[in-house]
Design brief:
Blueprint: E1 4-12, E2 18-26, H1 30-39, E3 44-50, E4 67-73
Antiparallel strand pairs: 1-2, 3-4
Length: about 70
């Protein structure tokens, strides 16, 4: 499994012009993010869960979260 999503997105601007975007997204799981940050010498890594767009250190990350807040320090 690559956690990669390739798709075509058609969006219409305010003038009615349709634009087509070729999208290629890569999703990461917390263990990958932690490994990547540790390989860059970050020492303290905290990962929190959040509702869409509502980032807070109050929420524990769980499997239902679509986004996560990552805070790392050197």
């Amino acid at each position: 499994m690559t956690f990669r999503d390739e798709y075509q997105l058609d969006i219409e601007d305010d003038d009615g012009t349709v634009m087509t975007l070729e999208c290629n997204e890569r999703y990461y799981v917390p263990s990958e993010i932690t490994w990547l940050l540790k390989s860059l010498n970050f020492s303290k890594i905290d990962i929190y869960g959040c509702e869409l767009g509502k980032f807070s250190r109050e929420n524990t990350l769980d499997t239902e979260d679509f986004e996560m807040l990552v805070i790392a320090t050197f």
